[in-house]
Amino acid sequence: MKYLIIMLLISSICFGQIAEDKQKHFVxxxxxxxxxxxxxxxKVKNKKTKFWVAVGTSxxxxxxxxxxxxxxxxxxxxxxxxxxxxxxxxxSFTINLFNK
Length: 100
Description:
By secondary structure, this protein is mainly alpha-helical. Helix content is 81%, strand content 0%.
C-alpha cells in the first residue's frame, strides 16, 4: 500500500511540470494498460504475462497514434510513445496489484 501512495505522490508532483499533451498520453496509456489487464483476467492466470501484454498493448497504441499524427501533417514523437508506455506500466501494475 505504501508503494501506491508513493507513486501517487510522485505523479501528482511531477504532473505540474509536464506538458498537457504528455499528460494525455500518460493517462491514455494507463487506461489502456488497466483495461488490458482486466480483459485478460479470466483467460490468463500468470500476472507477469498479463503485465507484459498490457505494456505491449500500450506500446502499440502509442506507436499507432504517432504514426497517425505523422500521416496527418504532424511529426512522430518518441517521447509521446514513452509517456504512453509509462502510463501503461503504471496502469497495468496498479490493476495487477489489486487483482487477485
